Every structure is written in structure tokens, then in C-alpha cells.
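Translate sequence into C-alpha cells.
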Amino acid sequence: TVREIDLVYEADHAELFAANFANSPEIVFPKIYRQFSTRDVLCMSFMNGIKPNDPEILSLSAADQRQIIDIGTFSIIKMLFEDGFFHADLHAGNLIILPGPKIAFIDLGMVGRFDEKVMRIMLYYFYALVNGDVERSAKHLLAMAKVGRGGDPEGFERSVTDLLRRFLLQAHHGNFSLAQLILESLRLSSRYRIFFPVEMTLMVKALVTFEGVGQFLSPNLDVPALSRKHIQRIYSQHFSFDNLYKHFMRGAPELLDFMVRLPKLASDSSRSLEDFLNDGNKQENPLSGLKSALIAGACVVGMVISVVQDGHPALSVSLLIAAILFFIFGK
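Result follows.
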């Protein structure tokens, strides 16, 4: 693409990756010398090491080989599920093993990005997948997709669930590939007119490289167990108080605006409800509609929070419909 041949973009990517991994010295990206670089020439630091598929790597100690696998797993999972910014042309030729050991990433012109919502669902999907939660992983995978005209999301979910169960059975015999499992799941989607973002394919490419390097160094590598170790950290951090508070504060302006208007909304709703009741037969208990009004109000608040936090549209619509029904028909 045009962005790939404009080396200014590659320089930007290198610096962004370096910033994302500033606290991980075992993961290296080329240092860019901007004063010597242009759109057609990129001047960067030299990486002197070996490729991960070079037989020379097998001469390293067993401890170093295990560390290389662990570092590589951490870096890929962090890129995909914590940063949402990842190397989209990942193969053994774009990786260099440095003394330490350290892993260097090069050729950074092609990158993939997940927006925050997709990255969040991806995290839930991958976490469920490596923990063997078949039903939830299928539901989270479907949540990332768009259903085409005449699509069959229920059929797709059933087929993916069956596929996951078959793969988990194979895992007990030591024959398991996360990348192949995800790719097979994506291939099923065309049969049911379900469409996924192109970044999903790029993600699979990154996982294929990670698995290939890992199994070259350790043929009996337990990919799900190793992935579980690193995804657990990100998953736990995602639900930490600090992170939840940060997301709450991001939606605070919209929530505050709603709360400011809530008294008027409640007053108008109460007046409308009173008028509605007065138009009909007199009720024996003037407070008999209060319970439904409160439930309707709770549904409205829940809908607003769902919208602010970018929740699933079906949840927001369901809460809105429930609020209307309780408001009109509640007694």
C-alpha cells in the first residue's frame, strides 16, 4: 500500500511500538534517526542477531529457548489484546533474536489496529478460548461480526461451538493450534453470511508466526497454557478498579448530562403517568403505579450507561423497550 512505501509511516510505527514496550527491555524495536530519514530513506539502528528459524538458535541453552518463547508470547498477546496495535506482516524474517535473550521486531510498515470495542471483545474471546469455555468463546466471536442479508448467526454459533469442541478433544492428544482454530472459525462464517473485520486475518497471521517459532524450539509446546499465563494478566487488569474507574470517568460527561436532565424527565414522566391514570378508572391505590415507574426509570438509566460504555446495541434497545412497556402498561 501507499502507507507501506512511505517510510515516514514506518518510522512512526517503530516509535509507537517502542513507546508501548518501554517497560519491556527484552523486546526491541529499531531506533529511528529522523534527521537522516525521508519518505524514501529510513535510517535506523542495526540489529545484530539470528533469525528464530535459524538452526543456530538450537545451540542456545534450554533456559534461553524457553525465555525466547515466553517473550514472544508476551509481546504478541500484548500487541493484540492490550495495545490494539500490532505487527501485521509478522514472519520469521521480521524477527531477530538478540543476546540476552531479547527479541527485535523489524519491517514495521504494515500494522493492524483494533478499536477499543473490538479489542475488548477480542480479549474476552481469546480468554474464553484458551480457558476452554466453548460457549462463551463462540458468543464473543459472533459479537465481533456483522451479519449479512439472509445471515444465520444462530447457525454460525452452533457450528463454531461444535468446531471448538472438536479442537479441544484434539488438544488432549497434543495436537492443537490456536491459529488454525481461529482460521477455521472464520472460514465457517462465509457459509452463514457472517463477516469479520480484515484485522482478524492479520491477527491469525501473527499467531501462526508465534506458534511456528515456539514449536520449532519446543515441539511439544502447550500453546493454550502459555497463552493463558499472559492473557490472564491483561484480563485481570481490564477489570481492575483503576481501569473501570478510568472508563467510568470517560463516560462521565454524558452521564452527568443525563443526571442533570433526570429530575425534569422524572417530573414529566410522573405527570404523564398521572394524566394517564386520571383518564382511566380511578385506582384504589394512588401509589400502585409507582413500582412500574421506578422500574422504567431504572431501565432508562441502564440504557444510558450501556450507550455511554459502548455496550451491545441489543442490550440498549431491550432496556428502552422495557422502559416503554413498564411506563405505559405498568400498574
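Note: The mean pLDDT is 81.
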